[in-house]
Amino acid sequence: MDALELLVRNTSEVLTLEGTHRERAETALTPKPGACVGVREGRIAFVGAESELPSGAVSSSTVVLDAEGGFVGPGFVDPHTHLVFAGERSAEFDLRNQGATYLEIAKAGGGIVSTVRATRAASEDELVRLALPRVQRLLEQGVTVAEVKSGYGLDLENELKMLRAVRRLGALTPVELVPTLLCAHAIPQEYRERREDYVRLCIEEILPAVAREGLARFCDVFVEDSAFTVDEARRILTTGRALGLVPRLHADQLTARGASELAAELGAATADHLEQVTDAGMRALADANVTAVLVPTSTLFLRMRPYAPGRRLRDAGLNIALGTNVNPGSAMSENTALALGLACLENGLSAAEAYWAATRGAALSLGLQRHGRLAVGDAGDLVLFSCASFRHLPYHLGVGHARTVVKAGRVV
Ligand code: NIG
C-alpha cells in the first residue's frame, strides 16, 4: 500500500455512517470500535484495526493524529444556511422577546427586507469579509460542507453579488460551500404593489443569469403568507429546474400553505423547516422521497411552537437532515451542537438519528454521495471529538466538542 498522508489512531470508535436512513440509526452509524482511519489523496483509504494496516501504510511523511480516546466521525454537513449578509437584527430579537412575532415584524417593514437594505448597500468584498468568521465558527464545530443561500439581494445585481461572494468565500475557507439561489425569499419593498413583476424578474432574468454563470446548484422559494404563494413557487422552481437548478423549498414554517405537497409534486431535494407540516404534507414528502431539513434553532430563536415533528417525519420513512439555519433574523447561531441538542429535545430524534441528520442525511440532501460518510473512497473530511461517544454531543447542550477538523486529508 502507498503511504497514507494522514492516519488517525487511538479512537474510542469511528462512525462510518455506511447504513441507510431506512434502518435503525444506531446501526446506520456503523460504529467501528477502536478503529483507525487513513486518508490518501484527500480520500478515505483505510478504516479498520491498526493491526490490519497494510505494510508501507505509514511512512515518515504520514501525519499521525492521536484521537486520545475520543470518537471520530465524518465532517458535519450544514444543509441550510444564510450566512452571507450585512447588518444585524438584534433589535428585532429584543422586540420578539417582548411579544412581537416574526410575521408582525416582517409586515411592519422589518425582517428579511431590513437585511436586504444592508446587503444591497454592502460591496461584494464586504460580504465576503463579514461572512468569513461565520464560516470559521461553523468549521470550529466540525462543519466541512455548508449550503449557503442568496436571498438578501432580491434584484439581479444584488443576487449575483451575493452568489459571487459565496464563490469567493469558498476559495478562502476549507469549508466546501454549496450555493443556492433564493431570489424568492421575500417580495422586495419596491415590488410590494406589483408582485407579479418581481416573480417575472426572477423567472426571466435572475434565474437565467445565475444559471449562465454557474453560480448555484439549488433554487429555493420561501412559501409563506409574507413571501410567495404555492403557484408562484411552482413557476419559479420549474423554471429553475429547466435551467439545471435543483428545487428545494422553505416549507410550512409559520403556516401550512401546501409547500410540502409542492415539494413532493416537483420532486424537490428538500423541504426545509416543516414546523407546521400537515399529515397530508408529510405523506406526500414520504411518497416522493423528499428529505426533511430540520432547523430547530430558528424555532427556539423565534420563540415559536410547535417544533417540526421530527419523530413522526422519521417514522414516516423520510431521510432527515439537520442544519443551523444561521441567519440574522431567525437563527443567529453557527452552533451545530445546539442544533443537535434541540433535534433531540424538541424534534424528538434520538442522539443517533440527530447525528445521522447532521452528517450523512445532510450530505444526501445536497446530492453529495461521497460526504457525511467514511467509507473507502469517500471525502477525507473528518472530525476528532474530545468525547468518547456521539451521544455526548446533544447531551452537553450547545457545547462544541470538535477537537481537530480534517478537510480532504489536511488538518484545518
Ligand atoms: O430560514 N424563513 C425564511 N428564511 C430564513 C430567515 C431569514 C431572515 O429572517 O432573515 C429562515 O428562517
Automatic annotation (TrEMBL):
The keyword Amino-acid biosynthesis does not apply. Zn(2+) binds at H80, H82, H250, N325. Its cofactor is Zn(2+); Fe(3+). GO terms for cellular component: cytoplasm. Keywords: Cytoplasm, Histidine metabolism, Hydrolase, Iron, Metal-binding, Zinc. It catalyses: 4-imidazolone-5-propanoate + H2O = N-formimidoyl-L-glutamate. Fe(3+) binds at H80, H82, H250, N325. N-formimidoyl-L-glutamate binds at Y152, N327, G329. It comes from the Bacteria. It is found in: Cytoplasm. Pathway: Amino-acid degradation; L-histidine degradation into L-glutamate; N-formimidoyl-L-glutamate from L-histidine: step 3/3. The keyword Iron applies. Belongs to the metallo-dependent hydrolases superfamily. HutI family. Catalyzes the hydrolytic cleavage of the carbon-nitrogen bond in imidazolone-5-propanoate to yield N-formimidoyl-L-glutamate. It is the third step in the universal histidine degradation pathway. This is Imidazolonepropionase. It comes from Myxococcus llanfairpwllgwyngyllgogerychwyrndrobwllllantysiliogogogochensis. The lineage of its organism: Bacteria, Pseudomonadati, Myxococcota, Myxococcia, Myxococcales.
